[in-house]
sn-glycerol-3-phosphate ABC transporter ATP-binding protein UgpC
Amino acid sequence: MASVSIKNIVKHYDKTPVIHGIDLDIADGEFMVFVGPSGCGKSTLLRMIAGLETISEGTLHIGGTLANDIAPAQRKLAMVFQSYALYPHMTVYENMAFALKLAGHKPAEVQAAVERAAGILQIAPLLKRKPKELSGGQRQRVAIGRAIVRKPEVFLFDEPLSNLDASLRVQMRVEISRLHSELKTTMIYVTHDQVEAMTLGQRIVVFNGGRIEQVGTPHELYNAPANLFVAGFLGTPKMNFIPGEVVAVDAARVTVRLPGGALLGVETAAGAQTGDRVTLGVRAEHLSLAAPQHTDNVIDVGVGHVEYLGDLSIVYTTLDGMPDMIAVKLPAEAAPLHAGARARLHLPPSRCQLFNSDGRALHRNTVEFGNPGGFV
Ligand SMILES: Nc1ncnc2c1ncn2[C@@H]1O[C@H](COP(=O)(O)OP(=O)(O)OP(=O)(O)O)[C@@H](O)[C@H]1O
């Protein structure tokens, strides 16, 4: 096992920069996920760690050793690709044994390592088959098995589940998590799927345009996003963003005027000044229908349309003076709402967040979201 430390890493292709000076420390044994939209540079950074891309500037240390110029095969890493990259003419056993044989291990050692990995991944009955005789999920297990037998110090995963259907992805997600608990090896996992990022990562790095937007536990990123990009990237439906103006600030709360004139109290923000233009962010699951006697932190909305999802409904509502819809998650039975109806929504002061005109979160440090305890 090994830590990975990245200092001021830059990547350019010809003269075009795609990674703009990244600092990141990944602890020994940590499960770190890189997530971000297409083209943000997450695969390029992973490939630089693997040694498949050169590092234009900056330093990479693996297990405390400077690794910039170490050949990929000497970095003690194993990479699992989206495309599986299995040898088609070899059996599952031969695919898994290949690297060990090449490294000169004795046949008995090779056999023990392959059987151990096949046992962990529950593919022992498949060892005599060729890749073309396997399902996508089985092929990906073999690709992971091939990585395990090498006992790497760091596993690198590049979108390994993207070619699988939705239910298999869920199953493999659970297996990769289990694998990490069992092996306790450092894992770096690239995905553009925010659910994979949230469910697998002990910490997540959110990338955008070749830069890091935020690093944190899934809980920190979801509940205390550093900026509008992270707030909007994680969560389905996306966090609601409502433009507003600060009209009063006191020790306990910031009062914001929203489109249509409603006044909202926000308890989580600090650093706002009266007159500031801000964006108020609130997640769909934190909104509720206001009881008739409630008058504080309530907005009047029109119902646009209702998505019935069985256990809950997502109600898309409109606020006068605002083009974007406000999404509300409600228990299905509690939402006898139909398009064209009016509704009153309650926005809890402890769940609303403010972002300044640069998109940066105005967090009050003392606000606790009840972090159950992250990795660091
Ligand atoms: N060999 C290359 N030559 C020139 N530009 C490249 C090369 N490889 C990647 N890029 C560019 O670098 C940027 C980052 O690419 P990268 O593949 O790391 O993104 P990504 O976040 O992994 O995206 P995706 O999820 O689509 O794979 C992109 O703008 C891409 O076009």
